[in-house]
């Protein structure tokens, strides 16, 4: 049967462990033109303050994304039939020059946005989200739903260095890429540097939902509030794999116990359905610290869940355009 969109390699014909490792076993394409959703790697961890290794995330997530099948079992959505999706490769990076890396990543993300595709990126450390936000925000500020153990709104590290994976969302607010009143951070926990560490973020209007509050309220209640905060205006979703408990996702740079189960993570993402998303990412998968590939598998599955949400949005938008 002729398909109008890119299709993954059929696992009934070529086993999952064979062939080229691309995201979701989709074709690797050299340009995002014609795509609805562009899957991109950002193999860069130059913003990491402690345990480096997330630069190896995209390659291993590609490998383990071969476990994903064609249909979302809850929505019954077939993402590859309702949206044109492909692996656009890794965005260019520079492992020894932080500012050049940020420029290169922004340029790569801008190519995706300019082609009219929605970027779904795999980091890389969490600083990789900043140049992607520079590309997607454009004229208008966007909202943010952030699943994370850490707020990532600190000011500077090691003297006056403004760019680390602990600072991206402070920079994004200063650069007016994000509307801080439309930011919600979910799953924040762990020891902090000082009692007032989150005061700046709260003063900007960011809604921080600590893990303790999440445990008391549950998935539905928290996501109902998150959806109200971002509304129907353009919103970016960022999923730091350290939001998940290190017993289920140990391969990450800054593990914090007391995290989400992988099942809660899936439930949280499914409740993003119906929002107006301009991009999404999964960051901080660090294969050198992984055990039995469990973090890469979790990362690939989170990516699949996000891809299905984006595909459903593409389908809705296309249906509205046709009338
Ligand atoms: Mn983070």
Which labels suit this protein?
binds manganese (II) ion, Arginase, Chain A, metal ion binding, 8-stranded parallel β-sheet, Ureohydrolase, 323 residues, globular, alpha/beta
How do you describe this structure in short?
With 323 residues, the chain is α/β, with parallel strands linked by helices. The protein contains ten helices and eight strands. The chain has one domain (23-322): Arginase, Chain A, CATH 3.40.800.10.
Secondary-structure map:
Elements: E1 37-42, H1 57-64, H2 79-82, E2 85-90, H3 98-114, E3 118-123, H4 129-137, E4 142-147, H5 168-174, E5 178-188, H6 199-204, E6 207-210, H7 211-217, H8 219-230, E7 235-240, H9 262-270, E8 277-283, H10 294-322
Parallel strand pairs: 1-2, 1-3, 3-8, 4-5, 4-7, 5-6, 7-8
Helix pairs in contact: 1-10, 3-4, 4-5, 9-10
Task: Describe what you observe in this structure.
With 323 residues, the chain is α/β, with parallel strands linked by helices. It has one domain: 3-Layer(aba) Sandwich (Arginase, Chain A), CATH 3.40.800.10. Helices cover 33% and strands 16% of the residues. The protein contains ten helices and eight strands. The chain has helices at residues 57-64, 79-82, 98-114, 129-137, 168-174, 199-204, 211-217, 219-230, 262-270, 294-322, and strands at residues 37-42, 85-90, 118-123, 142-147, 178-188, 207-210, 235-240, 277-283. The radius of gyration is 18 Å and the shape is globular. The two termini are 27 Å apart. The mean pLDDT is 97. Bound molecules: manganese (II) ion. The site of manganese (II) ion (MN) has 5 residues, from loops. Manganese (II) ion binds at residues 126, 148, 150, 152, 240.
